[in-house]
Each structure stands twice: as C-alpha cells, then as structure tokens.
Amino acid sequence: MQMSASNTPLRIGLIGAGAMGANHLRVLRDFDSGVVSVVGLAESMPDTLSRAVRIFHVPGFADYREMIEQTMPDLVLVVTPTATHFEVASFALEHGCNTLVEKPIAKTVEEASALVALAHARGLILAVGHVERFNPAVRRLKQLLEEGMLGDIYQLHGRRLGPFPPRIRDVGVTLDLATHDIDVMRFVTGSHVESVFARTRQLVRHNFEDLLLAVLSFDSGALGMLDVNRLTPTKARELTVTGEKGLFYLNYLTQELTFTENDFEPSAWGQMGSLAGVGDGVMTRFKVHKAEPLRLEYEDIFQAIRGGSQASVTGIDGLAALSVAQELLESAKTGKVLACGAPIRAL
Hints:
By secondary structure, the protein is an alpha/beta fold. It has 9 helices and 15 strands. The protein has a 9-stranded mixed sheet with strand order 14-13-12-11-7-10-9-8-15. It has a 6-stranded parallel sheet with strand order 3-2-1-4-5-6, sandwiched between helices.
C-alpha cells in the first residue's frame, strides 16, 4: 500500500478498545500530531466503543473490516482476544497494512506461521507486542550481558505473579503472561530453547491454567525457570540472572536493575574451621533512564515503517515465543520433557 510521506503523520488504525486498547490510545495521544494520526478505532461492543470515542475523540467503527477498507491505515494495531488475532491480522495484511499484534501472536503455531508467511509475501512489517523488550531495564541488562559483566549465564528465573484479572477469559497464564518471560529470556541470552518441562494447575477457572511452573533448557547451556500465576494478591514482575560472576536482579515494574558480585572469601563457622564459599560482594545499582515501554515500542515500529526496515520484535520472534509456550502446555499435559525442535529463523 502507499504509505504516508515522511513528512506527514502515520495513519494508525486500532482494533479493540478494551483495557489494553485504551492503554494504546493513551500512549498514541501523547505523540505529536505531526507524527501519528489515529484514523479509526474498531470495537464490536457498542458501549466500549462509544466510551473510547468519547474519551479519545477518534472515529469509531463497529466492524474492523469497514475501518480498514475506509481508512487504509499505514499501521493496524490488533488488540483483540487471542483467538481472533489470526483472523484480524490476516485481514489487515491482505489489505496491505503493516500490522502490530499484541502477544501472543496467535492462538496456534500454525496460525502464527501463516501470518509470518503472509507478511513476508506482501513485503509488510509484522510486529508482535512483546513490550518487555522495550523496558529500559531489560535493554540495559542485555547490554551488560553482551559486555561480559556476568560471564557465563547459568540460570534465569522469571517471576510474574498477580491477582486474577476477570478481563482475560480466552487464554491461561502460559500464553497470556509466560510468553513475556520466554521472549525476554531468548532476547537477553541470545539463545534458543531446546527443551521444556512444565507443571500447571487450574484453580480459579477450570478451562485454563492459572499457575505455571516450568524449566527451559537453552542451547547455550543456561536454564530458565518460570514462576507464573494469577493467584497472588500482590503483583510481582521480576527476573534474576545468575552467572559466573554474580547475580543480576531486574524489576520490570520499577525498572530497577542491580548486580551483586560473587565474593570468594574464607569464612570461619565456629568449630568447623575455615570454609571457602561464595558470599555477597559489591552490589551495583545501575542508572536506568525510565520510560514508557509501550511508547518505545511505538517509536521502534514507526522508525521501521519510515525506514523500510524490520521492527525489533518481528513475527518470527512472536512465533518462537508461542512455539515454546505451546510446548510448555503439552509438557504439562503429558508430564514429559519435550524437545522444542530447531531454532525458528527469519524467512
């Protein structure tokens, strides 16, 4: 499709005006009018649509197909229930629109693969909303790991806990929450998940899991642990990375990043004499320039559209995270360690 000229605003069409859709609109509203223009908002629920139109002052449509055909956006945002991602995103891509799909990219690996292939065939950008990639603390962690501050990575432990959200009804915690951590672990290690083992529980609802405990084995030799649930009264979003030289602690919510060095010093334990062990060394708190990850995600995809390049988080990345998540669900179902197959590469 013919995209906006470089000196004109990018035309944005948003599909889905629920809680996450409203969050997208809030962030888009903060961009200068010369950068973006929201040309349409599609939402099938009349009350939700009218409320969003009233608050954000954007053109509203009851049917996303009508919105796309009438406005022909440069970028379509798919912020709908996971089960509809394939249908909606494929329609946008078939109509020549660059597309950003909230994670997970689709409900099944087959649907995700079809979206990746369609975008490739049409020469369009397909980005996936793994927004934690744009968390400034994650970016800083990635940089420090690449610089060798930790040495060899031994273990990553992701904790993503919180209370039950009534708005999420179509997927369990593995697709809804763990895909964040799968993607971040792949990103910061630069390695592929070779095998998985998982256990899940269905405690609040009986159709989807609300607790996941899992181990991921990476081809780099690192092990990843996932501790994810919708059962905890307080919210936690944390990642620790243990390695040769110490431990990184990252808080996604506060964008805090610290590093505690290993300290190999002898210690006397009463009658036991002198024992060598690892203790707490110097702790460094890194300065992180805090920013809204969703805004940074938009800046990235806007730059990709203007420059004719790929977004930082591609459909391939979304497909890889979804593939691991589906293997976790299968492992929990069968009770077996499952291989994840060959690394998913760009087309």
